[in-house]
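Retro notes
What went well: the complex prediction finally ran end to end.
Inputs used:
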Amino acid sequence: MPPFEAIVAWSVFAAAVILIIWRPRGLSEAIPAAAGALALIGFGIVPPGDLLDLFNIVGGAALTILSTIAMSIVMDGIGVFRWAAHNLVRLSRGSGVLLYWNVVLLCFLMTLFFNNDGSILITTPILIRMVSMLRFKPHQKLPYLFAGALVATASSAPIGVSNLANLIAMRIVGLDLGTYALYMFLPSLAGIGCIAGLLFLMFRRDIPRNIPLSSHPLHPGPPAPMRQGYRGARSAGKPAEGLPVHPLKYDTAQTLPPEAGSFGLIRLTIGIVVLTRAGFFLGSGMGIPIEWIGIAGAAALVAVRWLWLGRGPKDLVTQAPWHIIVFAFGIYVIVHAFHQSGAVDAAVDFLSRQIDGDRFAAIFWMGGWLTLLSVLMNNLPAVMIGTLSLADMQLEPAVMQSAYMANILGSDIGALLVPVGTLASLLWMFILRSHRIPVTWGKYVKVAFAVVPAGLAVSLFTLYFWTGLFF
Amino acid sequence: MIFFVVMLAAGLAFYHLVSPGAPAAIAGREPASAPAFSQDQGGLVNREATTNASV
């Protein structure tokens, strides 16, 4: 690429990344991503002929995430999650320690069945409400909130469909869902378990031994605005002034009164979500594109709600974050141009020499490299760059696949070192701020540095030994 | 296929965590250990009734 074009590609990349992380005046990430892509196309740096290929890679991934978010909108609107805070306490039987592990389990499962950003958006307000109602002191709230954030975000690694970046990376290397999960489920689980365990040890003195119980009849909890993220906080009268807008953010549909969210409907909707998620693995094994399965699941959920409650899909049409498609496509065009400009060629040469056909070296170098990239520029562009770079390294298939998995671990777990590493972590910080819970970047980094490196190392070691059984 | 089964098993755990414990709860027949969550965030109702509060 000529020097002028390379400089333009680098500048557009830098400007887009800064604006996406900074989000001045609540600017949607889709805007800098789209503007940057248009600039690159306008300058002729990305030929129009490449656009269809690029869209084919990100289009399906964006639709899959979009369908997942649509499902979470419907479920939250029905009132499914209104019971979660109560259930967490009920199932903990008066033990703060059991409550901690129930929180870990809930956040893990929420990301497994939805996506990382959706999980943060839904569970963080639930946890805030829970610790507030239990009247925990500020230091007692932290174990639950940190565990929720770190576990929910890291839990996008095990199955590959819980994270937009993972889905795009999977398409780039042409990996199917079943193979991804086979290699990644166990190593990711080991890393997540390590992080949750270390957080528990770190905060063991802050976790209350007993939690209060009452003999009063239960109430399912407040309506959806408590769980709506920025806009919900604003509508609930919370200070949300100046908070930026997340690309995966959505408005929750108007929540129905408790009696409308009947038990049968709740069971049915959870069943549809679980079957859709499980169906990804069955369908992809038969060659069915996963976005079709996701769309079918979302359509089934909307149809059930329509038949049961008489509410059509209008709210989804107006509230679903359609701009995710623009955002994913725009950022991929920008990263493609950045990669084509040779910006990371020196790093690729260096890494190729270090890896030198060795699987262990590939796993640790790429896991570390992606962690560094994610910390510097956020994990979405980082994992795209890392995956595109892998294609340049001419590695053997076994080394290549191991390195790709390490990429994902670096971008999903290593990226948790700083809030800017993942959009979900940033989202978590903003939700906490909107609820007047002071967690500074310094506090976050202090906690993250105590648990994330060990979690990443455990997951990378497990990846090495586990995938050694297959290669 | 194995992950189809894994996801179904995880789905059961998910249902256990997010769904109401039993329809009886709605009718106020929840066991005495059930916490009382009111619409506001002001804390557990009738908190003074608790004996093992950690704060």
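What we learned: Residues 20 and 54 of chain B are 26 Å apart (CA to CA).
What to try next: split runs per interface for comparison.
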